[in-house]
């Protein structure tokens, strides 16, 4: 929970190391952002009062960040804080109540310094994220060995959303590799005619395929079905002689 946290990390720095602490500036019950705002894409046709639903658009998550400047402040302290927070790219942001959940955010819109004559006060910022979601820390599995027989791997998605993991295949002998999620009905990911010793790296969320021997010229050998992991336990069958590891982040609404 953001409001209940005493401190936070932004980028690679801890807020208390900067002499500031997270605060709730509102009395009474604490308010938190529950879901990112969203809208419905739909088309209305003349003569039909019921619009055609075309999907849902989720906006990047946005929330307020308020922090107290411990003790009095001067121009140098404020300059240090500004340099830390005024970034041009999204930075990891996590809060002390659960440091394993990470937002990727930067300050936008409203930002105010509220203080008294003794130079004591707090800052109010609006933080905008790069997506509607927060994420776990990156998780990398062990290197699984399917060089002698097919194997089945269990991956427990402890987040709140379906995720598209990345994975790396090291081919043993020339041939095909297939990766299938037995826990859902999606099509398997399949590579054909890989070379002995070739390493294929698949970046799931960005849909990038890279080969250690052929660079980005392996899409013709791939059926372009990217592995998906639904919420809960996923049983992944790996067919074809290879070694394989997975990398992923849980996703939270």
TrEMBL record:
Residues 133-248 form the Phage tail-like C-terminal domain. Transmembrane segments: none annotated. Pfam families: DUF6558_C (PF20753). Gene3D superfamilies: 2.40.30.200. InterPro entries: Dit_BPSPP_N, Phage_tail-like_C. It comes from the Bacteria. This is Phage tail family protein. It comes from Bacillus glycinifermentans.
């Amino acid at each position: 929970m953001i409001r209940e946290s005493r401190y936070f990390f932004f980028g690679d720095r801890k807020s208390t190391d900067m002499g500031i602490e997270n605060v709730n500036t509102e009395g009474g019950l604490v308010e938190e952002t529950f879901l990112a705002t969203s809208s419905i894409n739909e088309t209305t046709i003349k003569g039909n009062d019921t619009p055609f639903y075309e999907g849902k658009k989720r906006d990047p998550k946005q929330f307020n960040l308020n922090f107290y400047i411990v003790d009095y402040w001067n121009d140098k302290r404020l300059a240090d804080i500004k340099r830390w927070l005024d970034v041009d790219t999204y930075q990891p942001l996590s809060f002390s109540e659960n440091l394993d959940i990470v937002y990727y955010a930067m300050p936008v819109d409203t930002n105010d310094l509220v203080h008294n004559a003794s130079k004591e006060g707090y800052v109010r910022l609006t933080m905008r994220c790069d997506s509607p979601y927060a994420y776990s820390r990156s998780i990398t599995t062990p290197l699984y060995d399917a060089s002698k027989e097919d194997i089945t791997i269990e991956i427990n998605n402890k987040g709140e959303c379906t995720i598209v993991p990345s994975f790396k295949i090291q081919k043993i002998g020339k041939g095909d590799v297939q990766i299938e999620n037995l826990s859902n009905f999606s099509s398997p990911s399949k590579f054909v005619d890989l070379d002995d010793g070739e390493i294929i790296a698949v970046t799931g969320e960005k849909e990038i395929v890279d080969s250690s021997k052929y660079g980005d010229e392996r899409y013709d050998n791939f059926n372009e079905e990217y592995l998906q992991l639904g919420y809960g336990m996923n049983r992944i069958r790996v067919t074809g002689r290879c070694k394989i590891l997975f990398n992923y982040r849980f996703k939270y609404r």
